[in-house]
Each structure stands twice: as structure tokens, then as C-alpha cells.
């Protein structure tokens, strides 16, 4: 594989950049694979990459019904943080954060991980008590976290309106948190997985999951039957549809979640601001657009668009917090289908079908977990048992009641 570096950039510039290799192959499906991953979003591609890199599995395919990285991976607002409340969640997200910190070097692809900090605003005394509790819990878990006063917030964002209808009483702040470039994450993992021999099969929708004697044997796809010893479902909003093909049910609801971007502005917004109370979050992309996320639509559905009143409410909240933006024009709006679990935590583990594994339930907040999720899922598939990091996130918890309630830290989409 061609290596990206300053030297290869210089070398290629003399030939008008016509000598770059394709970033990944488009192979024909083989008849049989050791592992087939369903879903070429960031999580599926990361799973395939770590299966090859960490576990030496080379006969691996990723099947994708559309184009790679066209699902929620390409539709999210790219916030990366690890300041969850409970130990199990914090450790899983923190594993991911550590992988983010070395990811561009590891996969030799600039994922533009920018640790510009993430702020969670508190608008009431109860918000502030919750913030203090979470910051303490984070520190006990070795995760950086601090409480900001309104004055500290204003120093960072001089144009914030602290005295709006929802007064800003303070915020939690994780300095190592930030944003990454979502497309680059999908492309980088795809390129790195392909370099390890993983076949990425696009336009290859899974239409059926074949089982024999309670074990998975292969997949009926738009490109024919593909035999597989193991299958990993990593399909976000469509996970329940795939589970149904395999004869079991998931405790998930699929909801539309929206985001929108403004026209590009000069650099003005140096961090990421989230507010659970007013259901809005905002950052600025490297291109200059304000990237704004809304709350989820309350109805379940698979249409990749959302209700108008949700984004209208979001923009009202943003303008109240940042009146300066009242005349900025919005450029584009879109929706994705998020897979919401009852405790706002993911499901990563084995299923009732032998050889079939599931990774889903990331809901509104799985982008930040992309490398960690792929890493833990690869271990689970390769070893046929969960890694200690994802043991608590198995399907069993919905039977034995060991839920990990992260509604407080997840709350609004993020
Ligand atoms: C508007 C919005 C904002 C968000 N903001 C954030 C944020 O700021 N931070 C954060 O951490 N998270 C955020 N999220 C959540 C995050 O995007 C997701 O949790 C994460 O991207 C899920 O990644 P994935 O790889 O599992 O899913 P996806 O990228 O959706 O990949 C799943 C893939 O499976 C494919 N698939 C489905 N069915 C089949 C089939 N039958 N056969 C073959 N392939 C199939 C799909 O086409 C898709 O490409 C946001 C989500 C949305 C929608």
C-alpha cells in the first residue's frame, strides 16, 4: 500500500497527482469467508481492521448495502468524548479515546482528530449537581474532567448569552475531547482494512441469514450467497431488521436524528458546546460551517429525514445561547437512523445464534466510540467471548437486569 507522507505528497506533486493508487479494491465476493461483517460504517470497518491487525484473520469481508461510510458515520456531528458516568461505559469510551489519540498514525490516514474540548452546559442547580457528580466519577476513572464557572465559559466564548431563558450556571469540560473528520474515519479504516486483505463489498445488501443446527452458515446477499463461519452484525439503525432475519429480537428502537450545517464562517467557535436541557449542540468544522445537532424525533422510523419542528426548536435554542448567529444562513440539513437501547448503552457481544455476533445500540453517540467499538468487537468475534471491556454490554443485561443507565450522560444526541 502506498504510504501517505510529506514525501509521497511531494513525489506525486511532480506528476500532477496522477500517480496515487486507489484507496481500496472493489473485489468480487469470494464463495466463503472466515468472518463477514455486515455494515461498512465506521464500526464495521474498524471491526474488520482490528480482526486482521490484532487477530491475524485475513479471510474477512465487509458487506454493505450502499456505499461505505454512507450511514450514520457520514451523518453525525463528530463529537468525541469519554466522560460518561458509570465505570463500565467510561472505560469503554476511554479505550476509544486512547485509540483516537494515535489513530491517524496507526492507520496512516489523517482523521483530523482535533482535541478542542467539549463543554456540557448546566442550566439549573440540579444540572450543576449532576455535572459535579459526573466530573468526580470521571476523575476517579482517570478521565480528565473539570467544572467551569460562567466566567470561564465566557472567556472561551465571549459572545455566549449566559442570561438567556435557560441561564448558564456552569459547565463540565473535557479538554481531551473534541471532533474528528467522519468521512476520513470511514475511508481510513477502509483503506487500512483493505491493505490487510479484507474484501469490502459495496452494493451488497444482506437479505437473509442462513442457519443450520442453531449456527450461522452464511448470508443471502444482493450479490449471491456468501458462506461464512462467523458473521458480525454492525448495522446501526437497521440492526433489528438483521436480527429478525436471524430469528431473534433486539431491545432497540430506531429513530430519526437530525443535524444541519451553516454557510462557512471564519474561525469563531474554538470548542464544542452541548446543552442537554435545550437539546442542541454546536461546533465549527475545519471548513468553517457551524455544525449543529438536534434532538431525536420521538417516533420510530427508517426515513432518513426528521420533523421540521425539531430543527426549528434547536435553532431557536442556538440563537438564544448565541444571538450573534441569528443572521447566519443554514446550508444543509439531513437525518440518520439511530438505534436507541433502553439504557442508552451499546450492545456488543454474542447472540442466541452460534457464530453470530452483534454490535449495536450506540444510538445518538457511537461515532466517538468507533475505534474502541471495532477493537472490542474484533476481540469478541475472534475469541468467541467478550473482552472484559465489553462484558457488561452483552444482550444478557436485558434479562438479568444489570442495566448501565447512561441517559444522564447521553441525554441529548451527541
Ligand atoms: C445526526 C446525527 C448526529 C450524531 N452525532 C454524533 C456525535 O456527535 N458523536 C457521536 O459519538 N455520535 C453521533 N451520532 C451517532 C453516530 O453517528 C453513530 O452511533 C455511529 O456513526 C454508528 O456507526 P456505525 O458504523 O455503527 O453505523 P453506520 O455508519 O450507520 O453503518 C451501518 C451500515 O450498515 C449498513 N447496512 C444496514 N443494513 C444492511 C444490510 N441489510 N446489508 C448490508 N449493509 C447494511 C448501512 O447501509 C450502513 O452503512 C450521530 C448520529 C446522527 C444520525
From TrEMBL:
It catalyses: sarcosine + O2 + H2O = formaldehyde + glycine + H2O2; sarcosine + (6S)-5,6,7,8-tetrahydrofolate + O2 = (6R)-5,10-methylene-5,6,7,8-tetrahydrofolate + glycine + H2O2. Keywords: Cytoplasm, FAD, Flavoprotein, FMN, Nucleotide-binding, Oxidoreductase. It comes from the Bacteria. Its EC number is 1.5.3.24. It is found in: Cytoplasm. Gene3D superfamilies: D-Amino Acid Oxidase, subunit A, domain 2, FAD/NAD(P)-binding domain. This is Sarcosine oxidase subunit beta. PROSITE patterns: RHODANESE_3. Belongs to the SoxB family. It comes from Caldimonas mangrovi. PANTHER family: FAD-DEPENDENT OXIDOREDUCTASE DOMAIN-CONTAINING PROTEIN 1, SARCOSINE DEHYDROGENASE-RELATED. The lineage of its organism: Bacteria, Pseudomonadati, Pseudomonadota, Betaproteobacteria, Burkholderiales.
Amino acid at each position: 500500500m502506498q504510504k501517505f507522507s510529506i514525501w509521497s505528497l511531494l513525489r506525486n506533486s511532480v506528476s500532477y497527482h496522477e500517480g496515487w493508487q486507489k484507496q481500496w479494491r472493489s473485489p468480487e465476493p469470494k464463495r466463503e469467508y472466515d468472518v463477514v461483517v455486515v455494515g461498512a460504517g465506521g464500526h464495521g470497518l474498524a471491526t474488520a481492521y482490528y480482526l486482521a491487525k490484532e487477530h491475524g484473520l485475513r479471510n474477512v469481508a465487509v458487506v454493505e448495502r450502499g456505499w461505505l461510510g454512507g450511514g450514520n458515520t457520514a451523518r453525525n456531528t463528530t463529537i468525541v468524548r469519554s466522560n460518561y458516568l458509570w465505570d463500565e461505559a467510561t472505560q469503554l469510551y476511554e479505550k476509544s479515546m486512547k485509540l483516537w489519540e494515535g489513530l491517524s498514525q496507526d492507520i496512516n490516514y489523517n482523521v483530523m482528530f482535533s482535541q478542542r474540548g467539549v463543554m456540557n452546559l448546566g442550566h439549573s442547580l440540579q444540572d450543576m449537581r449532576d455535572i459535579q457528580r459526573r466530573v468526580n466519577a470521571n476523575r476517579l476513572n482517570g478521565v480528565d474532567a473539570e467544572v467551569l464557572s460562567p466566567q470561564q465559559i465566557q472567556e472561551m466564548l465571549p459572545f455566549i448569552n449566559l442570561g438567556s431563558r435557560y441561564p448558564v450556571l456552569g459547565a463540565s469540560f473535557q479538554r481531551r475531547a473534541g471532533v474528528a473528520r467522519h468521512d476520513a474515519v470511514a475511508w481510513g479504516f477502509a483503506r487500512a482494512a483493505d491493505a490487510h486483505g479484507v474484501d469490502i463489498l459495496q452494493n451488497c445488501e444482506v437479505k437473509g441469514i442462513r442457519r443450520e443446527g442453531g449456527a450461522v452458515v452464511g448470508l443471502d446477499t444482493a450479490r449471491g450467497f456468501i458462506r461464512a463461519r462467523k458473521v458480525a452484525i454492525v448495522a446501526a439503525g437497521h440492526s433489528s431488521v438483521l436480527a429478525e432475519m436471524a430469528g431473534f429480537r433486539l431491545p432497540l428502537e430506531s429513530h430519526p436524528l437530525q443535524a444541519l450545517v451553516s454557510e462557512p464562517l471564519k474561525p469563531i467557535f474554538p470548542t464544542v458546546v452541548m446543552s442537554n436541557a435545550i437539546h442542541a449542540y454546536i461546533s465549527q468544522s475545519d471548513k468553517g460551517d457551524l455544525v449543529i445537532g438536534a434532538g431525536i424525533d420521538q417516533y420510530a422510523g427508517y426515513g432518513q429525514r426528521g420533523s421540521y419542528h425539531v430543527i426549528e426548536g434547536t435553532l431557536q435554542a442556538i440563537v438564544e445561547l448565541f444571538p450573534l448567529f441569528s443572521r447566519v444562513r443554514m446550508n444543509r440539513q439531513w437525518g440518520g437512523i439511530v438505534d436507541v437501547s433502553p439504557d442508552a448503552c451499546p450492545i456488543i457481544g454474542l447472540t442466541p445464534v452460534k457464530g453470530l455476533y452483534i454490535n449495536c445500540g450506540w444510538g445518538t453517540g457511537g461515532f466517538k466510540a468507533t475505534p474502541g467499538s471495532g477493537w472490542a468487537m474484533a476481540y469478541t468475534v475472534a475469541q468467541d467471548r467478550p473482552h472484559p471491556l465489553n462484558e457488561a454490554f452483552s444482550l444478557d443485561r436485558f434479562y438479568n437486569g444489570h442495566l448501565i443507565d447512561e441517559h444522564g450522560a447521553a441525554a441529548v444526541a451527541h
